[in-house]
Amino acid sequence: MDRFDALFSQLDRWLGAVLDVVVIGLAGLLLLLLNWAVFARFVLNDSVSWGEELPAHLLAMLTFIGAAYLTRTNEHLGFDAVLRVMPPKMMRVVTALNLILMGFFGLLLAWYGGIAAASFGARSLISIDAPMALFRGAMPFGGALIALFCAVRLVGIVSGRIDPLDLLPESDA
Q1: How many separate helices (H) and strands (E) can be counted in the chain?
Q2: What is the pLDDT of residues 24-42, one digit of tens each?
Q3: How far is residue 171 from each of residues 14, 34, 83, 91, 92, measured CA to CA in Å?
Q4: pLDDT at position 140
Q5: Phi then psi for 124, rounded to 5 degrees?
Q6: How far apart are CA 68 and CA 109, in angstroms?
Q7: Spatial contact of 109 and 139, defined as CB atoms under 8 Å apart
Q8: pLDDT score at 172
Q9: What are the extents of the domains in the chain?
């Protein structure tokens, strides 16, 4: 089992590093594109054609992939103050139920997001020749990652390998 744990830890670190790069890259690209659009419009007096459409789609991508990132890093919205005052056994049960619900939400997001992404087919954005499915594909991708992270953590909680306190965000105390 130690070999499995080592492999899983390595895979988790790799996936975390990839998500770091993707989220930071998307946020940086969004920042650059928005600043260039404003600069071009107000300083150069020459608006770019993609000034609204491309940043809006990048923001949508960042939203869904960022949700998966926050699920992985345990920084998503939650009521950890309630969990902190529960007895350990109750905390484990509530955490498991929360992971089941979040995982189910991730599966729904992946399923219906996949249907929505596929419905765009080979259509492209209006302002640039980029496939719309690329941007819409972030929804099922983010949902699948959320479901994966929740499933792995659920197994860890149920098996006792993960302490529910390890899944809470850092406290100020």
Answers
A1: 6, 0
A2: 999 999 999 999 999 999 9
A3: 26, 35, 12, 17, 19
A4: 96
A5: -115, 165
A6: 11
A7: yes
A8: 47
A9: 2-167
- Please enumerate in sequence order all residues whose Cβ is within 8 A of that of 86, keeping only pairs 6 or more positions apart, or say none: 94
In one-letter notation, the amino acid at residue 48 is V
CA distance 96 to 99: 5
| CB distance 167 to 74 below 8 Å | yes
Helical (H) or strand (E) element with 168:
none
How confident is the model over 47-95, as pLDDT tens digits? 888 888 899 999 999 999 999 999 988 887 777 778 888 898 999 999 9
Beta-carbon contacts of 139 under 8 Å, excluding residues fewer than 6 positions away, are 60, 64, 109, 110, 113, 114, 116, 117
Say how far apart CA 2 and CA 5 lie, in whole Å: 5
Q: Map residue 153 onto helix, strand or coil.
A: helix
Q: What size, in residues, is the chain? A: 173
Cβ(55)–Cβ(34) under 8 Å?
Answer: yes
* DSSP per-residue letters across 48-101: -TTTTHHHHHHHHHHHHHHHHHHHHTT-SS--HHHHHTS-HHHHHHHHHHHHHH
